[in-house]
Amino acid sequence: MFRFQQTSDTFLGIPTAADAAGADVAIFGAVHGTAYPHASSATEETIAPDAVRRAITAASVNIDHWDFDFGGPLLNDGALTVVDLGNVPTAFNANQKNREAIGEATRSVRARGALPILIGGDDSTAIPFIRSLSDLPALHILQIDAHIDWRDRIGDEPLGYSSTMRRASEIPPVRSITQVGIRAVGSARREEVDTAVSWGARIFTVQQTRRSGMAAIADTIPREGALLIHIDLDALDPSICPGVNALSPGGLRLDEVTELIAEAMRGRTLAGFSIVELNPAADVNGMTATVAGRLICHVLGHLARRGP
Question: Is the pLDDT of residue 44 over 50?
Fold first, then answer.
């Protein structure tokens, strides 16, 4: 059995557990993925997943209270069983061990029949998370992000945070990648844009997303197979998500992202959800951590209202 590091605070005060047995959904954190050679370990002092846990629990007061976004208690009076497993043991610069641990943790959750929710960590933590879904017959990815993340490598490293979707495109069951909220300048050059488009990635800038509407964007995602939703918090405007590593004005609003989540989940089977790139040291009053927690709540709320 995979051993998670238990935390004193859990997401919304839900039960902690050693594994996902008997749960519909299992939440876990992973701070470190694959660091670039020039990366600093400064953010190691503050654990991003724990910051999300503390912020959303403080903001939500009581999980059994009325949630006006869902017309009732978030988990629909016990219709959905959720556990918090704690954090995957990772360490700065232990790149291969981190990837192996995240992959093993994700597979252990799925082996118990639970849906995995990952709280990162930088975007590289999502690479082993997505790879752990490679047994599925077909997988479609909805990435909500300011950047397309299609670099083949930075320096000699092919598994860092700028390569998440490039590596995802190489996983055999991944049939489509829909990228929403893209804007401004990131690590992508003409080469990466051409590669993404040639592969078949659907790229929607913030302006294109607003012109089309969330329902229309979601309708471009095929319905056969399973869906993975992956969110980089810099997709949202820094006025509500300042605690990220790459500030980029002009991002999506919270209500736009929650609407896209709802439309994407409608009539589709969710295989996993990951949310990354919180930098607690840059956050303001826990705002970004609270938004991250609330986005997870929206996934839980929709799952709790899904039929058998």
Answer: no
SS3 205: strand
Domains and CATH numbers, the chain: 11-304 (3.40.800.10)
d(CA 44, CA 303): 33
**Residue 208: alpha-carbon gap to chain centroid:** 22
pLDDT of residue 308: 59
Nearest to 150 by CA among 186, 104, 119: 186
- The torsion region of residue 284 among left (phi > 0), alpha (psi -120 to 50) and beta comes to beta
The pLDDT tens digits for 116-160 are 999 999 999 999 999 999 999 999 999 999 999 999 999 999 999
Contact in structure between 115 and 129 (CB atoms under 8 Å): no
245: number of Cβ within 10 Å: 16
Separation between Cα atoms, residue 149 and residue 169, nearest integer Å: 11
Which CA distances in Å does 90 have to 93, 147, 163, 269, 289? 9, 25, 20, 30, 20
For tokens 């919180």, the residue is: 278
How far is Cα 48 from Cα 257, in angstroms, rounded to an integer? 21
Q: Are 147 and 188 in contact (CB under 8 A)?
A: yes
Long-range contacts from 150-153, C-beta under 8 angstroms, 24+ separation: 150/188, 150/192, 150/193, 150/195, 150/196, 150/201, 151/187, 151/188, 151/192, 152/192, 152/195
H-state helical runs in the chain: 48-60, 95-111, 126-131, 164-168, 190-199, 206-212, 214-219, 254-265, 287-304
Alpha-carbon span 245 to 233, nearest angstrom: 9
Continuous H helices in 133-253: 164-168, 190-199, 206-212, 214-219
